[in-house]
Amino acid sequence: MRQYNLLFTSLSGEMLGGGQRSLLLLLERLDRAKFRPFLVCPTEGGLVEKAEKLGIETKIIRMGSLRTPNIFSTAGTVFKLRRLIRKKNIGLVHTDSPRQALYASLAVRKTKTPLIWHVRVSTPEKKSLDRFLYNRSRKVIAVSRAASLRFAGYDFAPDKLVVIPNGVDLTQFKQPHPDRKLREELDIEEGSVLVGTLGQLIPGKGQDVLLKAAERVAEQAPEVKYVIVGNGNKAYRNTLEDLSAGLGIKDKVRFTGYREDIPQIMSCLDIAVLPSTSHLEGLSRVIIEAMASGKPVIATDAGGNPEAVEDGKTGILVPSGEPDRLARAILELARDANKRKRMGEAGRKRAEQLFSIEMNVTRIEKIYEEILCPPM
């Protein structure tokens, strides 16, 4: 059996968010008898460290911003990528963000190496760039129907586009009991209802809306506490902490920063919330991981969220940017443990049916094989 060399690129060498976690899961489970992965990142960080522990050769190649392009640095980056592709005899390049995809598309022009562009968000930065990248890609993978609709109305070859939802390791998230030591670490006392949101601390994730909803909930359900997990914009985190103090709910909110023990965090939650205000959401890993953990999910109706959450069955969908509606949904679930249990069980079944990492990797590997080993 022939082994093909594949080159993967990432937006960051850090474990910033769902995109990096999705890539790492794919790298972990790739059939090494068929495929040998290489990884390019613009910086060092947790993703690079984890990939190297898997025995994956990594290289740091910095890639400049698309907003302020520099012809000399762009040419240098393209040259380094092209040299790596030739040196390692790369059979296929799999990339994600538009920035990575653009540099990769320029690098493969002379090598004729097939390019896969993995689309993880629902709204394009520039429609003209989308057109260019779509035309240069052999295959485009969208993580949801919402993400695929960014190409709606374009005169594109439809057979290039395929929807493959994100996948999670279901075994990691099947924890029957809350991690009590972690709840103690978070200072969550017995009898509290714990609401949590996980994600980068950036305005589009809507943590500020959750805090405003928490103020409204506190008046009627003081037992509800909150945990906000994630790193990101330091100024925005300061704004959020100031907001929680100004709203009089500072004692109810825990900011944990970045955590790697996501399954344990999920086990402690009673309700998972994704309060995104941005329609960039492709298919949130937080939603899938919460459902895999048997937790009810409250999410905004942004991007691909409605494709994951069955409103009224596995959770509740609310309009984005409306703290009053979010507060009502939190109160509804906080007051009804049986409903939380029913929704959590339904969410777990949905995750098993649609979002396993095994299904995700199998479908992606099939695309590799179709490109690299076409039928005679």
Strand and helix map with partners:
Elements: E1 4-9, H1 18-29, E2 35-41, H2 46-53, E3 57-60, H3 71-87, E4 90-95, H4 98-111, E5 115-119, H5 127-136, E6 139-142, H6 145-148, E7 161-163, H7 180-185, E8 193-198, H8 207-220, E9 224-229, H9 234-246, E10 253-257, H10 262-268, E11 271-274, H11 285-292, E12 297-300, H12 305-308, E13 315-318, H13 323-334, H14 337-354, H15 357-372
Parallel strand pairs: 1-2, 1-4, 2-3, 4-5, 5-6, 6-7, 8-9, 8-11, 9-10, 11-12, 12-13
In short:
With 376 residues, the chain is of the alpha/beta class. Helices cover 43% and strands 17% of the residues. The strands form two sheets. Strands 3-2-1-4-5-6-7 form a seven-stranded parallel β-sheet, sandwiched between helices.
Q: What distance lies between the first and last C-alpha atoms, to the nearest angstrom?
A: 17 Å
Overall pLDDT: 92
**Per the principal axes of the C-alpha atoms, what is the gross shape?**
globular
- Would you identify the CATH H-level superfamily of the largest domain? Glycogen Phosphorylase B
Give the helix tally: 15
How much of the polypeptide forms β-strand, as a percent range? 15-25%
Radius of gyration of CA atoms, rounded to a whole number: 21 Å
Structural class given helices, strands, pairing?
A: alpha/beta
Q: Work out the oligomeric state of the chains in this entry.
A: single chain
Give me the CATH architecture of the largest domain, please: 3-Layer(aba) Sandwich
Determine and state the CATH class of the largest domain. Alpha Beta
